[in-house]
Amino acid sequence: MDSDAKDTLNRESLFHDAWAASTPLDQIQVVACFEAPTAQENRFILRHMGPLKGKRILEVGTGLGEAAVYFALHGAQVTATDISPGMVDCAVQLAKFYGVKIEGKVQAAEELNVPSDYYDFVYVANTFHHVTNKPHLFSEIKKALKPGGRFYSWDPLAYNPVINQYRRMADKVRTPDETPLTFKDLGLARQYFKNVGHCEFWIATLALFLKYYLVDRVHPNESRYWKRILEEEPKNLWWWFPLRAMDSVLTRMPLFRRLAWNMVMWGTR
Q1: ∠ CA 133-139-140, rounded to 5°
Q2: pLDDT tens column, 129-188
Q3: Which one of 49, 74, 155, 171 is at 20 to 30 Å from 213 when CA atoms are compared?
Q4: What are all long-range contacts of 43-46, with beta carbons under 8 Å and residues at least 24 apart?
Q5: Cα separations in angstroms, 135 against 2, 109, 119, 149
Q6: CA-to-CA distance for 199 and 264, rounded, in angstroms?
Q7: Is the domain defined by 3-160+177-203+260-268 classed in CATH 3.50.4.10?
Q8: Do 261 and 229 meet the contact criterion of CB atoms below 8 Å apart?
Q9: CA angle at residue 231 from 97 to 218, to 5 degrees?
Q10: What pTM was estimated for this model as a whole?
Q11: What does 13-46 look like in DSSP terms, one character per residue?
Q12: CA 82 from chain center: how many Å?
């Protein structure tokens, strides 16, 4: 690994260590991350995965541990990795807080030290756009999966001008090394996996972000919008649900889907 990549990993680790240290366990939204109406990406992934009981799941880039703990609560055997020691410790402690157990490992996504041919699923949320070497990560995921196993990921796309402006404004709650995905990354995934698919989310529904800024007057550095959405009560989203229905049409159109905030991607070993 060259010096620039090491510098990037160090910045990522320090940033996420500080985030973990500042987040109380009882404020981490485990269930909402997968079951809130605004958790569109994870709700989609859960439908694809099917029953989790007894499955071996590797999470790459566990963050605060919401997904690892959610999977464990549903009977999965979970290994959670992250470049940040603080995040891994947070995930392990969060599991204890919820009465389940996960295995935590501190390691870079591009250099996983996990069993080969072992996992049913590899789950990678908001991580690909942080890594310095995507081919290495795809290779490591493929090695970890057992034959027929599947990976699921979701990350932001690079094209939407509203989201790109939001990223520029939210400079205190994100790292400078992020590189949002493009549709070229699907081609890269197809070099390593079969049956690669994708689905996009958040076009018209991004009006929720505009509401936070223009109506609620919440600056992007004051509250992470991508976490704030999980706090929304369904009764207050009466105006947002029609936009979600609109997105189900827009995301089927090649030109419009480029304007999506996030892309879910999956493939089979």
Answers
A1: 90
A2: 988 899 999 999 999 999 999 999 999 999 999 999 999 999 898 888 889 999 999 999
A3: 155
A4: 44/199, 44/201, 44/264, 45/123, 45/152, 45/154, 45/264, 45/266
A5: 16, 11, 19, 18
A6: 5
A7: no
A8: no
A9: 125
A10: 0.95
A11: HHHHHHHHHT--GGG--TTHHHHSTT-HHHHHHH
A12: 12
Question: Contacts by 137-141 with C-beta closer than 8 Å and gap 24+?
Answer: 137/60, 137/109, 137/110, 138/188, 138/189, 138/191, 138/192, 138/193, 139/192, 140/60, 140/109, 140/110, 140/111, 140/112, 141/60, 141/112, 141/192
Q: How far apart are CA 51 and CA 202, in angstroms?
A: 26
**Cα–Cα distances in Å, from 65 out to 20, 59, 98, 146, 205?**
10, 9, 11, 23, 26
Question: Rounded distance, CA 63 to CA 7, Å?
Answer: 19
pLDDT band at 36 (very low <50, low <70, confident <90, very high): very high
User: What span, in angstroms and rounded, lies between the C-alpha atoms of 93 and 106?
Assistant: 14
What is the structure's pLDDT at 4?
65
pLDDT recorded at residue 177 = 80
pLDDT at residue 132 in the model: 84
d(CA 209, CA 229): 9
In angstroms, the CA 154 to CA 89 distance is 23
Q: How many residues does the chain have?
A: 269
- Structure tokens, 114: 């996990």
Amino acid at 67: A
How far is it, in rounded angstroms, from Cα 85 to Cα 16? 9
CA distance 24 to 213: 25
Residue 223, classified by CB atoms within 10 Å of its CB into exposed (0-12), middle (13-18) or buried (19+), is middle
What is the residue-averaged pLDDT of the chain? 94
Quickly tell me which residue has 């493939």 as its tokens. 267
Dihedrals phi, psi of 160, to nearest 5 degrees? -70, 120
